[in-house]
Amino acid sequence: MSLLINMPNRSSTKLVAALSQFISPEEIEVWPDVRSPEKVTMALLWQHQHGSLLAYKNLQAISSFGAGVDFIVSDRQLPHLPIARIVDPMLATQMKQYVFGVIQHHRLRLEEYRIKQSTQLWQPKGPHKGNTIAILGLGQIGTEVGRFLHSAGFNVIGWSHSEKNIKDITSFTGEVGLKKVVSQADYLVCLLPLTPSTQGILNKSLFSLMPSYGVLINVARGAHLNETDLLKALNNDEIKAAYLDVFQQEPLTNDHPFWQHEKITITPHVSAITSLETAVAQIVENYKRCQSGEEILHSINRDKGY
Ligand code: NAP
């Protein structure tokens, strides 16, 4: 039995070293130089080459190296096997700090004051208006972010697939619910998984419902956002600003119009970074479960795609 690491765009040196404390190095394979494909029982993936899992006839389970599995389930040649994701409580902690930080950056006009500071301009103004935060996706991370923002004094509403009863967050479902949530959003935070039904959801019809002083925060996946629609909405003053951590193409290309846009603030996919320690513990646990024929932890619903 062996564990395959298939993460073409990332260095796996630290990961292999960390896994080697729990799994014999002979049982760890790194794609593409796989010594014994027939021994591979579990595959750990991040942005793998689609179709590349067909080579492993004895594969029993697949795991993402992060919270999202969109790049896995979109592989049309994926074997029909259980898929796990990393559920790291620290991801939610990092995400609530990030989202709170960018909301405060905008609300308190910090960028405006930094520019004024350069010309020694003393010009006090109250915070930007708007106290309602709408969160799309009330899962592991969205719920934590919402609770935290409520405790910081914001009015928090949210949208999910199934109905929720979460203390301090008024939540909605369905198309009608989405419109209700978005039309009240002073800050619209996307924390949805990327699936065929959420791809491109941040588009002109949503922006047209938001208040003109509304702010978009996308910390989920780049493909949730229609980039052309966002540029139009910002240029036509339909919404006020956007904070973006994720992009359709990462890294963002040098000629991308987002770089120079005065209403867009960019961070390079850093809002919540999977901890190596937590990930390794969950990967090792699932690898052992594969060996003993037990069900893996944190498996996703393949039909729903998350
Ligand atoms: P999760 O626990 O799977 O929760 C997903 C939420 O989205 C659930 O509330 C689900 O509703 C809702 N949802 C899914 N499809 C929907 C639809 N069509 N309509 C309405 N609601 C829908 O996911 P999570 O752990 O909170 O993470 C969310 C996403 O954040 C991940 O998939 C990942 O892409 C992203 N992320 C980004 C970073 C980063 O660094 N930028 C880091 C971590 C995660 P139900 O509860 O009713 O199923």
Report what the structure shows:
With 306 residues, the chain is α/β, with parallel strands linked by helices. 30% of the residues lie in helices and 16% in strands. The chain contains 9 helices and 12 strands. The protein has helices spanning 13-19, 70-73, 89-107, 110-117, 140-151, 174-183, 204-209, 227-235, 276-292, and strands at residues 2-6, 28-30, 40-45, 61-64, 83-84, 132-136, 155-159, 170-172, 187-190, 215-218, 241-244, 264-266. Helix 3 crosses helix 5. It starts with a strand and ends in a 14-residue tail after the last helix. 38% of the residues are buried. Bound molecules: NADP nicotinamide-adenine-dinucleotide phosphate (NAP).
Distance separating the two termini: 27 Å
Beta percentage is 15-25%
Bound ligands, each once: NADP nicotinamide-adenine-dinucleotide phosphate
Average pLDDT figure: 97
**In which range does the helix fraction lie?**
25-40%
Largest sheet: 7 strands, parallel
Topology pattern, helix = H, strand = E: EHEEEHEHHEHEEHEHEHEEH
Q: What spatial form do the alpha-carbon principal axes imply?
A: elongated
What strand line-up does the widest sheet have?
A: 8-7-6-9-10-11-12
What value does the Rg take, in angstroms?
Answer: 21 Å
Helix count equals 9
Helix vs. strand class: alpha/beta
